[in-house]
Write a structure and sequence with these properties.
Elements (H helix, E strand, L loop, with lengths): L1 H5 L1 H6 L1 H18 L1 H15 L4 H50 L2 H6 L2 H44 L1 H7 L3 H38 L1 H6 L3 H53 L5 H13 L1 H28 L20 E8 L9 E8 L4 E6 L5 H8 L10 E3 L2 E2 L5 H6 L1 E4 L10 H5 L8 H10 L26 H15 L3 E5 L7 H14 L4 E5 L11 E6 L2 E6 L1 H7 L2 H19 L1
Parallel strand pairs: 3-8, 3-9, 6-7, 7-8
Antiparallel strand pairs: 1-2, 1-4, 4-5, 9-10
Length: 583
Amino acid sequence: MYILRELSWFFRKHWKRYTVGIAFLFAIDVLMLWPPRLIGETVDAIRNGSLTESGLTKTLFILLSLGVALYVMRFVWRYLLNGGALILERVLRERLFGHLTRMTPSFYQRRRSGDLMAIATNDIPAVERTASMGVLTLVDSLFMTLLTLGVMIVSIDWKLTLAALVPMPFLAWSTAYYGRLLHERFYLAQEAFGEMNDHVQQSVSGVRVMRAFVQEDQDVEAFRRVSEKTLERNVNVSRIDALFEPTIGIIIGFSFLIGLGYGTYLVFTSSISLGDLVAFNLYLGLLIWPMFAFGWLINVVQRGSASLKRLTEMLAEEPDVHETSHPVTEVGANHIEARHFTFTYPGTDKPVLHDITFSLGEGETLGIVGRTGSGKSTLCRTLLHQYRMEKDALFFGGVPIEQISFDSLRAKIGYVPQEHLLFSRTIAENVAFGKPEATEQEVMRALELAEMGRDLAQFGEGLETMVGEKGVTLSGGQKQRISIARALLMDADILILDDSLSAVDARTEERIVHHLRQERQGKTTIITAHRLSAVQHAQLILVLDEGRIVERGTHEELMKQGGWYAEQYRRQQMEQDVAAGQG
């Protein structure tokens, strides 16, 4: 079977656990064959009048002892096999989570968040059930069936046994047919569940926007359509699932009918004894579980196979960016250089950055400005090496960026993106996210540098204030400043602020920039901004337009050029003066 073959690495690793568990299963199956034989012999003894008190006592003692032994052994195999499956579930979750942390942004552009959650919450448990109850039913049903049939043929009557097995080919055909349908429909049901998860995630995340545009009813209606689609596909699965038990029940009923009818004839013709017929029917009763288990096995295995296929497809995806076989782990100077750098996002054919060339010395500040969509954020992201790019175009300390190890590169960089992601934790935990060992004094110092110190007085619990999911309890400016504080606490050699001052007022921005200049002397800083006052102190300012550098220089040089930068700066100064006059 596909799923057992794909999980063979796990079974080999934990072979001792599974070997002992399966051995106990075998022992249980062997012991289960003893009671029917004892009962059959007791029936014959009663009929013949040869049953004695000591013989009955011995039989009852054996049956009681078997009951206790079976109880203990069933506990052992359940502990071993189910425990092994739970270990598998943990391993798969860790693999999935580790894989998600290694994937590049393009992966998340292709994959929906809801689908990722569906794999973690629905598909992995389906695989776990296959590794526990699936293995149990596969081993137990096959071994129990073969062993019971062997005993029935040898100790009862081979003709009666074969006659009772006449309906079995119908069982094999029906379970194979239903299993194929179940695999296809369960795969589609899981996809629909992922779509529903994704819809809920987006609705919850964007609940403020939805309410602002009065779209609650429309969103509820959209969710109703998605949930109906999920319901329909799960009902299709349930229809097939519901056919297993009745089909198997009918086939088992025919087996009992044949066994009882033909067995009665053999008793009347003295081919077998009455005790043999009783034992035969008890043995046939023992086959009920393997037959049901076989149908249930197909059900579980097909569900697990569909889920494992979805999980395997995701784990098979490779990140767009790979480290070289022998990456550079030590990069000395924080000098950054771009040489005729051109960049195109994966999956597109139109370059976003064209022929970018600049040199930023260690300890200097680079300002990047331009119209919306000019490529400012893209240039920042390429410095993090999140995308595959051309070789020998970007350099850190004279080393091509593609030759530097990921850990070394990102340890040198403190990055504050446009999207300020805060975790549902305290302010202190959010600030200390990149440096968990930071003291309370260090956290407070970082918040003060980010001009967040005075805001803490508004929160009753100070640093221990919970910010809510994605910082829902904070204003946009507060979220930005906490994100800046988080980067400042790391005290990285290179700090990138990607339009991270847009939500604060001009005076707060001025104070933050002043703190940056004081605290980061001798360290490299890159700032992208729409408000040009945030970058006017930079040693080099690049003006981008449609991914090209159209102006470059210091603030004074750009003002003398009289281009877009000078015009925009004068307009912003005028607006600021007007606002100050009105105040």
